[in-house]
Design goal:
By secondary structure, this protein is α/β, with parallel strands linked by helices. It has 9 helices and 11 strands. β2, α2 (43-58) and β3 (62-68) form a beta-alpha-beta unit. The longest helix has 23 residues, at 260-282. The termini are far apart. The protein binds nicotinamide-adenine-dinucleotide.
């Protein structure tokens, strides 16, 4: 019997915990706030930003938002980031990606101070992660770790295969898993024998953007399978794993939708709260 991991329920629990801590912080005069910056009219980005803002408000945090036109220049976006960076009421800044082609995402992301980098994507945050120092970790990989923890799946000494080495998910996830004492193998597009990497694993995490890449030929009986991939199809959302084919083989598996996706937003809430605490330690502010 394969159990489906209910990411929506776990994410709701984490969001409720964040909301309770926000209420405490508000009582002492500090309301955490997230500033979202959206550039252009990409419909998917607008939906993602709206969901993040809704979650922020539901958690009782302050919602700051700026929407810039598709032709916004580097200086326009940089000025908004700098304004939010200087605002003590803004705990975290999120620059929604992708950006229009005239803008260099990595340069603009690096303008966000590490203490407000709730997406964990700046060079500074990547360095803090690599060195195991205090910092904000990218939301999706930390959501995967939180999901495994919530399910009581031990990481210390576990064999974990991470399929996909992208900057957003695979790379930071491999580092987070290593810090938790897992033995980590990373596969990517040049891996010649994918099954040889994934079959020995107790936990297989897939984040490749290749729809249906992983099936029964890659997974040993009893393994836990975490599907990070998201693909929009006429039949709805689907992932990087052929999950129906793993029924009866995997011990536990995340669905798409309802697995890692909701965890990403929950971890954004966690990061905004952490950023607020970090900011308060650095420069105490009145409400
Ligand atoms: N659930 C969420 O909240 C969430 C968040 C972010 C990304 N994602 C999804 O995760 C997936 C990965 O995102 P990303 O930004 O890390 O992607 P990316 O494009 O940066 O990286 C993809 C990685 O997959 C590897 N890869 C490609 N083909 C492969 C193959 N045939 N075999 C093995 N490895 C292969 C590449 O080498 C690369 O390392 C995407 O589907 C994305 O939509 C989901």
């Amino acid at each position: 019997m394969t159990t489906t991991i209910d990411g929506t329920r776990i994410a709701q629990r984490i969001r409720a915990q964040v909301a309770a801590k926000v209420t405490e912080a508000t009582g002492s005069g500090r309301i955490p706030g997230l500033a979202t910056v959206l550039v252009g009219d990409d419909p998917a980005s607008a939906v993602y930003v709206a969901a993040k803002r809704r979650a922020i408000r539901e958690a009782g945090m302050r919602d700051f938002h700026r929407h810039l036109p598709p032709r916004a220049t580097h200086d326009d976006v940089a000025a908004v980031i700098d304004e939010f960076a200087a605002d003590p009421h803004v705990s975290g800044i999120l620059l929604q990606l992708p950006l229009p082609p005239q803008l260099d995402a990595s340069v603009l992301i690096d303008r966000i101070p590490v203490t407000k980098d709730v997406d964990g994507l700046t060079t500074g945050s990547a360095g803090l992660l690599a060195r195991g120092e205090r910092g904000l970790r990218p939301c999706t990989p930390s959501g995967v770790i939180a999901l495994l923890d919530a399910e009581g799946i031990p990481l210390l000494g576990a064999q974990v295969a991470v399929v996909g080495w992208g900057e957003l998910v695979g790379q930071p996830l491999a580092q987070l898993l290593l810090r938790r004492g897992a033995t980590v193998s990373v596969a990517h597009e040049h891996t010649t024998d994918l099954a040889a990497v994934t079959r020995p694993a107790d936990i297989v995490v897939v984040a490749t953007g290749v729809r249906g890449l992983i099936g029964p030929e890659h997974v040993s009986p009893g393994a836990v399978v975490i599907d990070v991939g998201i693909h929009r199809t006429p039949a709805g959302l689907t992932g990087d794993v052929r999950s129906a084919e793993l029924d009866g083989i995997a011990d536990r598996i995340t669905p798409v939708p309802g697995g890692v996706g909701p965890m990403t937003i929950a971890m954004l809430m966690v990061n905004t709260l952490r950023a607020a605490q970090w900011g308060a330690e650095r420069e105490p502010v009145a409400a």
